[in-house]
Amino acid sequence: MSEVLDNKEVAKIYIDARGPRFGATITTIVLAIALVTQNKWVIVAQGLVFLIGAVKGPQFTPYGLIFKNVIKPRLSGVAPTEDVRPPKFAQAVGFIFALVAGIAAFAGADLVFTIAVGAALAAAILNAAFNYCLGCEMYLLIVRFTSK
């Protein structure tokens, strides 16, 4: 484990960079199930996971807790760290897509549900397979353009 993340003040700002990618892998599976089954309750559940990640941070989601308690102890070496703000923003973007999909599902707008879930699934696949967090990149662009 990384000694850096053991410091409580640092742990508020930085997270193990491998955790969000693990979460994206589970998210990919959940969103694929939601898309294939068109099940509104699956997207509601994923929306709640996104909400927790957006408000508290991805390390506090059920997926983050699985990573922290089951996966991370089995990994060796120093944990790479990253600022928690871009992944939190990405979780908020995911929540918006899940919210749109959930509303569409309950309203009977199947096409809107499919598009919203498909877009979230595409972003999750990018993160899980290629370690490219689309929401994180959006956050960095927004910060860059608003800080001038």
Give me the secondary-structure topology.
Layout: H1 3-6, H2 8-11, E1 14-16, H3 18-37, H4 40-55, H5 62-71, E2 81-83, H6 85-107, H7 110-130, H8 134-146
Antiparallel strand pairs: 1-2
What does this structure look like?
The chain is mostly helical. Helix content is 75%, strand content 4%. It has a two-stranded antiparallel sheet. The longest helix is centred in the middle third of the chain and has 23 residues, at 85-107. It is globular.
List keywords for this structure.
148 residues; mainly alpha; two-stranded antiparallel sheet; 8 helices; 4% strand
Short description:
The chain has 148 residues and is mostly helical. 75% of the residues lie in helices and 4% in strands. The longest helix is centred in the middle third of the chain and has 23 residues, at 85-107.
**CA-CA gap between termini:** 37 Å
- Written as H for each helix and E for each strand, in order along the chain, the element string is HHEHHHEHHH
Helix content: over 70%
Total number of helices: 8
Using the alpha-carbon principal axes, give the shape.
Answer: globular
Which structural class do you get from the secondary structure elements? mainly alpha
How many β strands by DSSP?
2
Radius of gyration: 16 Å
* Side-by-side strand order of the widest sheet: 1-2
How would a textbook summarize the main sheet?
A: 2 strands, antiparallel
Task: Tell me the strand percentage band.
Answer: under 5%
